[in-house]
Amino acid sequence: MTSRSFANGPLICVAGKQGRLGNRLSTCGHYVAVANNLNLPLISASINEYADYFSGPSNDLYCSYPDASTVFGNSKFQLFYELFMRVVEFYANKNKQHASAARRFLEKHPRTFTSSISTIPTPEYRAMLLGAMYRIIEAAENQNIKGAKVVVLRSKTAKANKSLSITEQIKLNFDADILIFASFNFRDPETYYSTKEPVRRFFSLVPDYESKINSVIDLCRSSSEILVGIHARRDDYKNFQGGRYYYEQSHYAQIMEHIKSLYPNKKMGFLICSDEVLDPKYFANFNVQFGAGGVIEDLYALSKCDFIVGPPSTFSGWAAYFGEKPRFILTSDRAYPQREDLEYYTPAGTTRELFGCDSIQS
Hints:
Elements: E1 11-14, H1 21-38, E2 42-44, E3 64-65, H2 68-72, H3 75-94, H4 99-108, H5 123-141, E4 150-153, H6 155-158, H7 166-172, E5 178-181, H8 189-194, H9 196-202, H10 207-221, E6 226-232, H11 249-262, E7 268-274, E8 288-290, H12 295-302, E9 307-310, H13 314-323, E10 327-329, H14 339-342, H15 347-354
Parallel strand pairs: 1-2, 1-5, 4-5, 6-7, 6-9, 7-8, 9-10
Antiparallel strand pairs: 2-3
C-alpha cells in the first residue's frame, strides 16, 4: 500500500452509463479533478466499459483514483467492498444475467476485505460491478443498508439544495461513508479547468493506442504545416434537436476551403473524423486523412491536431480539453471561423460548451 492519507471524508462513487464516450470522459474528468483537490478516494464505475483504453482506469476493476493500492487502503473503500460482495453473492445464487461471473468472482475473492484482494478487470466483472452499483443505490434509497452511511445523489434532489456542484454536494454530505452520484448533471467546471494534469494523466492512453495514433498524426504532418481536426458528427445528429447541427458533407468542405483561405501561405492538412463513412469526392481538393481508426483513436488524434472544428459535442470538447487545443464550434451553418478563433485556447469558452451556451459567430 502507498502511504498517502486521505481526508476524513466519503468514498466518491460515480455510477450509471451517462451518455457515450465524450460525455463519460468529461463527466468523470470533473470527479477526478474534485477528488484530487479534496484528497478523497474515487471509484468511477461509469467509465468501466472504456476503461481498458486508459492508463488509470485500466489498472483495476473499480477504476480507482488516484490508484488501486491507495484507494484499497482506505477504510471507506473496505465498506464499499463488503457491500459489493453482498450483491455478488446475491447474483451467484439468484440472478441469471451475472450468475456465472459472480460465481467465478467468489472463487477468487474473499467475502471480507483483505489487503491482498485481486483486481482482475475482466469485461464481465466490470459489467457486474455496474449492475451491483445499481443494487447498492436501490438499497440505500430504501434505507436497507446497515453498518455504513451510504448517500445517493440525484440531480432532482440536489436541486433542492440549489447546487449541482460536485464540491458543494460533497461538503454537504461529508459525514457519509460512501457518496454515490447517480445522475449525469453534476459538474464542477472551475475545478475541472484549473486541475487538468491529474485528469490528463488518469485518462492518458495505454501505449498500444498511443502508438497507433502517433503513426497517423506523423503521416498527416509529413505533408502539412498546419493540421486541422474536423469532427464531422452526423449519424445521430440527423435527429438530435431536429437536425440543428447536422451538416452536409459539402458544408464541411466549404468550412475547410474557408480555413485554407485564412492561411494562404501554409500547407494545410485535414484529419476528418466522423461516425459515418464519408464520400471522398467532396474532399478531393484537400490534403486529407479520413479517421485514425476506431472511436478512441479518432478522439485522441483530434487532440493532437493544431485546432479542432465541429458541431457542439462533448467528443470534440474532450479532445480540445485533453490536448489543450483551440476549438471552433459550428453552432449554425452560418458559423465560419476566423484566425483568432483557431489560434487561442480558451478554457472558459469550453466551460460554456458543456452547458450549451455557445454564441453564434457569423
